[in-house]
């Protein structure tokens, strides 16, 4: 009897799954590997920025050596002040800020409304409209370059001006070239820079929200607009911050439309003007002496930092909400 009991205990013990516990050495090795891997990736991404910062803060005389300079000797802000003195930085920065802020504000008004309608309301053509939204992401803007130029050169208020022309004999048109309306008007109709992507983000976020929130709002007597404004929008803060970040970056970095539709050099945004600064400084560095060439190089790095610096600060502030939105909207990277 005793032997049978021992045998039964051994059989039951054999069936119990045994967990393998990793040794301390394996855990430490994995942590070290992960740390080195992340440090290497971070170095590759930060190397250009650190190099530009080091050169921009350096005196040109200290750049004559061949050694790598990370911490500048005789650090100075002279290169930044020279860029501000020699080039019209603030005038073009004002134009860029105005274009980016107003276009982004319009985008934040239009895109969530479109995304909410596609996510929560079923109507004929819902899928077709959403497919057209996706199509705006796929089709490059270069395809519409010529039609855009002709339309904005003689803008007839969506055909109203041409209709008036049939009566007066002269179409009522306005030349929108060299104005920021070439960015505002598309944003008003959900066709701004990457608006299709933003509509998709809002739609995915809205689809993941429980419908009980809307049902509770209807019970309390809220209209559809009231439910959208008082219940839905307060819960989409992460997506709002993400779209704010992406839209500001895209409008700030935009050069294709500006090069095509803004002919006046005094009205060009900062990113287009920065290309002109780089060409001027490159020409100076190739035609002048070695010391002046190093000075032009340092000023060029300072100009690049002055153009991209605001975007870096904006991303540092909004990165928490950006990651949260990517997780909750279902985007897989």
Structure description:
This protein is mainly α and 333 residues long. It has a single domain, classed as MetI-like (MetI-like fold), CATH 1.10.3720. Helix content is 71%, strand content 0%. It has 15 helices and no strands.
Topology summary:
Elements: H1 2-15, H2 24-56, H3 78-86, H4 89-120, H5 126-138, H6 145-153, H7 160-168, H8 181-188, H9 195-207, H10 212-219, H11 224-232, H12 237-253, H13 256-261, H14 270-287, H15 290-328
Helix pairs in contact: 2-15, 3-15, 4-8, 4-9, 4-12, 5-9, 9-12, 10-11, 12-15, 14-15
Key structural traits:
mainly alpha; flat
The residue fraction in helices comes out at over 70%
Rg: 29 Å
**CATH architect. name:** Orthogonal Bundle
Structural class: mainly alpha
Q: What is the third-level CATH name, the topology?
A: MetI-like fold
- The shape is flat
Average pLDDT across residues?
81
Strand content: under 5%
User: What is the CATH class name?
Assistant: Mainly Alpha
The main sheet comes to: none
> What's the SSE pattern?
HHHHHHHHHHHHHHH
Low-confidence stretches: 18-23
Q: Could you state the CATH homologous superfamily?
A: MetI-like
Q: How many structural domains does the protein architecture include?
A: 1
Q: Outline of this structure?
A:
The chain has helices spanning 2-15, 24-56, 78-86, 89-120, 126-138, 145-153, 160-168, 181-188, 195-207, 212-219, 224-232, 237-253, 256-261, 270-287, 290-328. The chain has 15 helices and no strands.
């Amino acid at each position: 009897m005793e032997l049978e009991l021992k045998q039964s205990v051994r059989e039951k013990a054999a069936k119990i799954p045994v967990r393998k516990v990793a040794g301390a050495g394996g855990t430490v090795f994995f942590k070290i590997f992960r740390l080195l891997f992340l440090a290497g990736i971070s170095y590759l991404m930060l190397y250009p920025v650190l190099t530009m910062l080091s050169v921009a803060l350096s005196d040109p005389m200290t750049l004559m050596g061949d050694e790598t300079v990370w911490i500048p000797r005789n650090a100075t802000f002279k290169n930044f002040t020279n860029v501000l003195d020699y080039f019209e930085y603030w005038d073009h920065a004002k134009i860029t800020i105005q274009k980016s802020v107003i276009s982004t504000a319009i985008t934040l008004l239009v895109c969530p409304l479109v995304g909410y309608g596609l996510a929560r309301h079923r109507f004929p053509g819902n899928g077709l409209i959403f497919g057209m939204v996706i199509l705006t992401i796929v089709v490059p803007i270069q395809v519409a370059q010529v039609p855009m130029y002709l339309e904005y050169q003689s803008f007839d208020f969506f055909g109203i001006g041409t209709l008036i022309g049939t009566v007066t004999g002269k179409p009522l048109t306005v030349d929108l070239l060299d104005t920021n309306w070439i960015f505002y008007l598309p944003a008003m109709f959900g066709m701004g820079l990457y608006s299709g992507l933003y509509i998709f983000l809002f739609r995915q976020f809205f689809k993941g929200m429980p419908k009980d929130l809307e049902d509770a709002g209807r019970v309390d007597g809220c209209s559809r607009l009231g439910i959208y404004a008082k219940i839905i929008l307060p819960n989409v803060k992460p997506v709002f911050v993400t779209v704010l970040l992406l839209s500001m970056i895209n409008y700030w970095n935009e050069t294709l439309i500006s090069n095509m539709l803004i002919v006046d050099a005094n009205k060009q945004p900062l990113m287009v003007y920065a290309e002109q600064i780089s060409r001027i400084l490159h020409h100076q560095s190739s035609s002048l002496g070695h010391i002046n060439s190093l000075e032009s190089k340092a000023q060029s790095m300072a100009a690049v930092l002055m153009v991209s610096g605001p975007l870096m600060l904006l991303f540092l502030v909004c990165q928490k909400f950006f990651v949260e939105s990517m997780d909750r909207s279902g985007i897989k990277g």
